[in-house]
Amino acid sequence: MRAESAARPVRVVVCDDQELVRTGFATIIGAQPDLQVVGEAADGLSAVHVVARERPDVVVMDIRMPQLDGIEATRRIAGPDVSGPAKVLIVTTFNLDALVFDALRAGASGFLLKDARPAELLHAIRVVAAGESLLSPAITRGLIGRFAERVRPAESDTGALDTLTAREREVLALVAEGLSNAEIARALVISHETVKTYVSRILMKLDLRDRVQAVVLVHRLGLAGGH
């Protein structure tokens, strides 16, 4: 992944109906040598068209936009039925919990508070681009926990967990706490590449699309740690 980043910048589309916010995000992102803004959109419908045309790696998506809101746009860009979906980073605020639940279902890969610092935005884009869905302790754990409470676990969920080895369950538990691959590697005293292999295997065995879905599953089954 590091070699790919050196060869080609992460392609980003910025979607926000507020021109000041959109331009600010694009300026911050475009100033980075490893990131490239390939398109902007002021509403959800335009976002879908821009993404279809540009095929970005990451879409920075506002929720409340005209014509088509960010949730429906996310579903059309990253939903379960989309072929070759882009990764969507939702930009949200604390008072939009209900909408974020819907965004999870729509296929969002991460969440960021709208008042986040520029460095946090850049970090979030890079994390999502690398396939390590952003699980910020400030917002995502709580949101996912409340989201999971609304969805009853299926028998297939618990059955799938039985296919995991003890080490895979250990890695899954740390993923559910919001730890990155690097943090899991330090915690278990194993290599970063080994963690990536474990995470990929876990997602494949549980038939999950990304780490967000893994965290939702853990919370839904009541297996998350009490913190």
Automatic annotation (TrEMBL):
CDD domains per UniProt: LuxR_C_like, REC_NarL-like
What the entry lists under InterPro entries is as follows: CheY-like_superfamily, NreC/VraR/RcsB-like_REC, Sig_transdc_resp-reg_C-effctor, Sig_transdc_resp-reg_receiver, Tscrpt_reg_LuxR_C, WalR-like
Pfam annotation, one family: Response_reg
The keyword Transcription regulation belongs to this UniProt entry's keyword annotation: yes
**Domain HTH luxR-type, which positions?**
157-222
Q: Per the UniProt entry, what are the Gene Ontology biological process annotations, in alphabetical order?
A: phosphorelay signal transduction system; regulation of DNA-templated transcription
Molecular function (GO) terms for this protein are: DNA binding
Q: Where is the Response regulatory domain?
A: 11-129
User: Which residues get modified to 4-aspartylphosphate?
Assistant: 62
Q: Is Protease one of the keywords? A: no
The UniProt keywords, alphabetically, are:
DNA-binding, Phosphoprotein, Transcription, Transcription regulation
Cross-referenced SUPFAM superfamilies: C-terminal effector domain of the bipartite response regulators, CheY-like
Q: What is this protein called?
A: Two component transcriptional regulator, LuxR family
**Source organism of this protein record:** Georgenia satyanarayanai
